Amino acid sequence: MTDFLVASAFGLGSGAAIVVFCLLLRAPLREALTHGFWAGMIVGGLLAAALMGRSAGHAALPLAYYCLALPFAIDVVHRVAPNAKQPYVDGFGIATAQLLAAGINTPLRLAHFLAQWAHETAGFTLMRESGSYRAARISEIFGVGKHSAAVTPAEAAQLANNGPALFERVYGLGNPKKARELGNKQRGDAWLYRGGGLPQLTGGGAYRKFGFADDPDAVCSSARCVEAAIKVWTEKGCNVLADRNDIREITRKINGGYNGYADRVAWFNKIWPVVRDVDAPAESWKAAEASKPTEQLQRQLVELGYDVKVDGRVGPKTTRAIVAFQKANGLRADGIPGKVTTTAIEARLSGTAPTVGSEVVPDAPGVAAPAAGGLTLAGLGDAGQRVVDQGQMLSSYSGLSDILSKVAMGFIAVGAVLIVVGIVRAYVIPAIWRHKVPVAA
Q1: Quick one: pLDDT band at residue 272, thresholds 50, 70, 90?
Q2: Residue 88: which of 224, 201, 180 has the closest Cα?
Q3: DSSP string over 70-83
Q4: In angstroms, how far apart are the furthest CA atoms of the chain?
Q5: Whole-number Cα distances in Å, 366 to 77, 250, 370
Q6: Minimal CA–CA distance to 109: which of 136, 78, 81, 70?
Q7: Is the pTM of this model over 0.90?
Q8: Nearest Cα to Cα of residue 132 among 168, 154, 163
Q9: Are 273 and 372 in contact (CB under 8 A)?
Q10: In angstroms, rounded to a whole number, what is the distance separating the alpha carbons of residues 339 and 248?
Q11: What is the spatial distance between Cα 62 and Cα 55, in angstroms, rounded to a whole number?
Q12: Is 248 helix (H, G, I), strand (E, B) or coil?
């Protein structure tokens, strides 16, 4: 009851202040009262929701921030990966506090975090590796000249559709070098510690390092699947990289190379429009922090004659310049400034005459663009729809407690108010007070 009175008082006070402010600006009384009413409803509703969250055992400000400024991870997964396995969905549903504690609390961080695991798990559908491969596929991946296991065609035929035997041969004691590398110490470890969970942990060493050796299947459980992903993400220092929107380096940290880079970018481009703030730029690179290494790279490209703005952010022009340099120097034109590319740039600057490039690339690079264009989620009405979405998601858990049910109802009510206000501001007010609406020249 006290929370309700506090929220009501703040709502009334805010509404009165808006009315006075509008009157001071010589707005008509009806317009001032309308704006004051909706302002009071919004402020009071938001505060009530936050206070109810605090009563339920959550910090009021983080709860309000996370629900209004950043979508729940489970909500994002529902929207971008409708076929996600239930343990992953449930895991994200109970991992809000874990994500916040790990600092995954901004749109860029959450988008990059989810994009990496969406790729690793084929859209959150892969739980653990099955190892059920056809003979031809085994030869293609693990055959002579393809893998340290050097599986012969005859062996491939025997290992076909037999996951435990295949993994023992290529990751276990049948391949001592790889077994030592992965930390598989005894027979059966290769299968027991096969790829699993969001990060697709592989090998006894990884399972022991991240605390899953005693219960390998827990890496796929709803209770601990996100824990595994957070531990890997944190150990690799990916939050700072996400702040820079550096999906190349994040991929290298997570994967050890750039395998599946285009797919990781595609997932990011799908997720970014869903998680970004309503007032944030649609292009993710514009929301990124400037990076000193990127500034240095851009200065080098400028010195080589490329038309690039030195701002520490990798946007389309920087990517096009990288691709143009790679093509001009016989490198793989993937837009990734990896070791080979940066070494070639330094060699050009310190040795032979510079190759002057052009930002115009005759054909598109073979990977998706690193900056997300995405759909726009701007406007007050859209913000309201996002709040309603959070309330509807919470309502699915309302059976757990009466407080949670009230929080869900609060969010749905606040979202509905925001939607109405957005419609009123966009259509009704301009129709009623046409002389107040500026006309473009």
Answers
A1: very high
A2: 224
A3: S--HHHHHHHH-TT
A4: 88
A5: 27, 19, 12
A6: 70
A7: no
A8: 163
A9: yes
A10: 12
A11: 13
A12: helix
